[in-house]
Amino acid sequence: MASTAPGRPETLTPEQELKLKEFWNVTLSLFGQSAAQLEAAASTSLTEDTAALSLENATAETTTAASAATDEAETEPAAGGKSKSKRSKIFSRSKKDKEKKEKDKDSKDSSVNSSRSNLTVPETTVSNRPSPPPGLTTDPEDKYNQGKDFKAALASQTPEELRTTFWGFVKYDNPDALLLRFLRARKWDVEKALVMMVSTMHWRGQEVYVEDIAREGEATAFAAEKTDKTAEGFMKQLRMGKSYIHGTDKEERPVCYVNVRLHKAADQTPESLERYTIYLIETTRLMLKQPVDTAAIVFDMTGFGMANMDYTPVKFMIKCFEAHYPECLGICLVHNAPWIFQGIWKIIRGWLDPVVASKVHFTTKTTDLTEFISLAQLPKSLGGDEDWEYKYIEPTATENPSITSPTPADTAEKESLETERLRIIEEYEKNTREWIKEESKGAKVDTDVKDERSGLRERLRTNYWGLDRFLRARTWYDRVGIVGKNGEVEFYPQKDNKVEETKEKVNGNGTSAPAAVSAPAPTSDDDELD
């Protein structure tokens, strides 16, 4: 049974809980909550500096800082040289679509929030843009230029748009746990955590369009692959089994296995790999069940040669984990690396944050792997006893009817669920303000408020899974029964009409389905890394 790690909602020290309250206070301020609400929240338990920061944010008119942020966003491209107006479809269906997208690249896509919950979003104007926190300084350790993305987000989005993006990011997660990821990643510095979180929201919604990748999914790529290189490359990753999520390690973390020998840079575009990487990380999020909040990665280097080395996707993966999915990687195992990887690792290690680098372990034998993953749950391809092989099942054109061809009943159900979600969010925000100021009222209120917040979190989770079929296309993991319709996860379903003794069952049952395309076996016998 996995234990709950420090710094999580269940294990916070009083000092850490205060930091979480401060973070919520400035976050609600950024979302444009009223000054009266924030004054009540800030008047008791928070430090004077934090209270002043929150109140000034909530009541500020157009400020010099906001104008500066606007000017910077209008004169400089977004990080990575990507323009938010570039968005059309993640997988274009034809060259004509691509040409139209390029012609329209300077106009804002009116459907930018189409995959988010149905919250009312006002038009962005200079006067209703949020302001950066007073005294915000440039962080010399800002490796990914997130301060710039933070300012771009404030310059281009209203408080309500930021609020919508945030709750779309939460999905089925515990909102406290999400904020705590950013706090832990920034060593409990509230200001730095806020910059990191808002820049991530900007990245998700304005640069890589995470929700669109989830909504369009495998079926859209499958339909577009004959005319679109990005879609073709995306489907190629899935069919060859370059990576897949299967089972758990000894800490009950879901494990993503990567067959590095199957990668060749010329086989797909960089955009295909970025889409696929985001798809895989977001799919892994589905499989995190409390108290487990991190995943494991196994890079199987068997058969690796220089033809398989590609630094571009490595850099993108590092950026994802360090800048936008903080505290999501539990452990990384590099297995059976040949001696030629020594020089490559020296380069990669130099790019890694020391905390991330400390999670990387090299293994050479099956017994090394079983220190982290039990033999019964380790695939036979790696010397384990788990008789399982990845075989890809193709998507169908009719597997996402609630997205592609919703009926009037579907539309009505979605609108009802979105309305319900908005009510829950409003209750949660109100309850959070009560929680922030509750210390002056005694322990009884503290317990009551925490119980209410817990109940609201469960309602948010249940509501999301009602909305899931409208927001997320089915994946291979849905087709084979690993992910159930209510979020239940079953890595080891029934096999040959018998229930496996060692199967892992997480919050429900799943059913398996026949499979089709399997990954090729290793062919190289390169020397191992000493």
From TrEMBL:
Bias type Basic residues, positions: 83-93
Protein's UniProt name: CRAL-TRIO domain-containing protein
PANTHER family on file: PHOSPHATIDYLINOSITOL TRANSFER PROTEIN CSR1, PHOSPHATIDYLINOSITOL TRANSFER PROTEIN CSR1-RELATED
InterPro entries: CRAL-TRIO_dom, CRAL-TRIO_dom_sf, CRAL/TRIO_N_dom, CRAL/TRIO_N_dom_sf, PITP/CRAL-TRIO
Species for this entry: Orbilia oligospora
Gene3D superfamilies: CRAL-TRIO lipid binding domain
Lineage: Eukaryota, Fungi, Dikarya, Ascomycota, Pezizomycotina
Region called Disordered, residue ranges: 56-145, 493-530
Pfam families: CRAL_TRIO, CRAL_TRIO_N
Polar residues bias locations: 119-129
Biased composition (Low complexity): 56-70, 511-523
The organism's place on the tree of life at top rank: Eukaryota
Compositionally biased spans, kind Basic and acidic residues: 94-109, 493-506
Record-annotated CRAL-TRIO domain positions: 245-390
